[in-house]
Amino acid sequence: MGCLTCQILQGDLIPPGGIFYRDQDFLICHTLDVNILGYMIVSPVRHIQSYDELSSKEAEKLGLHIHILTRFLKTKIHDIEKTYICSFNEETHHLHFHVFPRYPWMLSSENIHTDGKIDAAKIFSQMRKTYKVGINEEMKNKIYLLAEQFKVFLSEYKD
Ligand SMILES: [Zn+2]
To answer: In terms of pTM, does the model score above 0.70?
Structure first.
């Protein structure tokens, strides 16, 4: 089975909303199959499998991409309370970072606490399981709009 990220980079797989951003080193897309608006994936263009394989320059750029992306999400989607950032590379081995928006409605799910505290890993896991149902048409339209907004946001971005 081919690498999904490489398939996107080769144009063989179109993520919902299309490619949000791509340069010679990095790719930003919406998640392919989880019906949660603004759940984004940031990947290096190179097919590498772990964070330590990035060059220092790539690592710096990656930090900036994630920073700008989280700022964008917070600005455009007002009910995002927090953004989780994580990288596991178990299902897809091509190094990637999940930029995962935590919405208030997620907190009403069962089994998201450990010792009475919010457990981010549980929320992440549970939401992915519950909403990994494919992207519906309504969501596709929202993601497409989000991609357009991101392009404008980037072109006007100031630190
Ligand atoms: Zn790959």
So the answer is: yes
